TrEMBL record:
Keywords: Antibiotic resistance, ATP-binding, Nucleotide-binding, Transport. Pfam families: ABC_tran. PROSITE patterns: ABC_TRANSPORTER_2. InterPro entries: AAA+_ATPase, ABC_transporter-like_ATP-bd, ABC_transporter_ATP-binding, P-loop_NTPase. The keyword Transcription regulation does not apply. It comes from Arthrobacter subterraneus. GO terms for molecular function: ATP binding; ATP hydrolysis activity. This is ABC-2 type transport system ATP-binding protein. GO terms for biological process: response to antibiotic.
Length: 269
């Protein structure tokens, strides 16, 4: 098995010398038929960072994160999580990760409490420890009252929160969250941000994909901007945005603003 790479310094990492990144991607590529979704992505996510992955619709964020977490096989490239090759040693790698995928079906005929308990037991944890953590997570995510409700009857935001609890229950070293704040109300979003900040300050690494630039600017310390399956910029949030806001920098990098073109018929006066 080839050794995990040392931090390259060329792909957005700012890790102390000799410390392996929490996630390293090299030459990652994926094509669906004629469409190239991911076109050779290199990225280092430093251990302990709060890393935002941003890009326009169809940029390749979900495809990249699905490959990085072992859910989708890459056509080319390699992925290491804390030095473990995700596709050569999947069980070892997956023990290190908690994943909130975008749009993956949950076992929604379980109650919220049963679902998180099941996630803990699947990870090989003992029943008593799982019970303590499930209770703590339901409390922290304000789901105690709905612990006995079937997940199929949860709202979209509650479903996100219970999926997040399932991703956290085994205290992973790397948390990969695809659009964690979508459909989540502002109070719950603030609770989730607090939980993630505590997790990162305790040495955990968080990767979030998001369209909300303001949130990424406030919450993340690192960011990668991807478009058309390639990395346009990566590094600390301050380096990437320079003197501008992240949103302005994003629009500048990605381009494509076309206000109202061809929609003359929408004018009502
Ligand atoms: N299973 C699939 N089959 C065919 N094409 C796909 C598939 N999954 C993704 N794609 C295509 O790959 C490209 C990247 O999609 P992806 O979902 O990774 O983008 P994204 O950055 O997550 O977008 P969004 O922000 O809209 O969720 C898009 O052009 C998409 O249409």
């Amino acid at each position: 098995m080839p050794p995990a790479p040392e931090p390259s310094g060329r792909s957005g990492g700012s890790q102390a010398p000799g410390v392996r990144p929490a996630l390293a991607l090299r030459g990652l590529a994926k094509r669906f038929g004629d469409r190239i979704a991911v076109n050779g992505i290199d990225l280092d996510v430093p251990t302990g960072s709060f890393y935002g992955l941003v890009g326009p619709n169809g940029a390749g964020k979900t495809t990249t994160l699905s490959m990085a977490t072992g859910l989708l096989r890459p056509d080319y490239g390699q992925i290491w999580v804390h030095g473990v090759d995700v596709w050569r040693a999947p069980l070892e790698a997956k023990k290190l990760m908690g994943i909130l995928p975008d749009g993956v079906r949950l076992f929604d005929r379980l109650t919220g409490e049963q679902l998180v308990t099941y996630a803990g037991l699947l990870r090989g944890m003992d029943r008593e420890e799982v019970a303590v953590r499930v209770s703590d997570l339901l409390e922290a995510l304000d789901l105690v009252e709905d612990a006995g409700t079937l997940v199929v009857d949860y709202s979209a935001g509650m479903t996100k929160k219970i999926a997040l609890a399932s991703a956290l229950v085994h205290a992973p070293r790397l948390l990969v969250l695809d659009e964690p704040f979508e459909s989540v109300d502002p109070v719950s979003a603030a609770n989730i941000r607090d939980i993630l900040a505590t997790y990162a300050s305790g040495g955990g690494t968080v990767i979030v994909s998001s369209h909300v630039m303001d949130l990424v600017q406030r919450m993340c310390d690192h960011v990668a901007v991807i478009a058309a399956g390639t990395v346009l910029a990566a590094g600390t949030v301050d380096d990437v945005r320079g003197d501008a806001t992240l949103e302005d920098r994003f629009v500048e990098l990605v381009g494509g603003r076309n206000p109202g073109a061809g929609l003359a018929w929408l004018r009502t006066s």
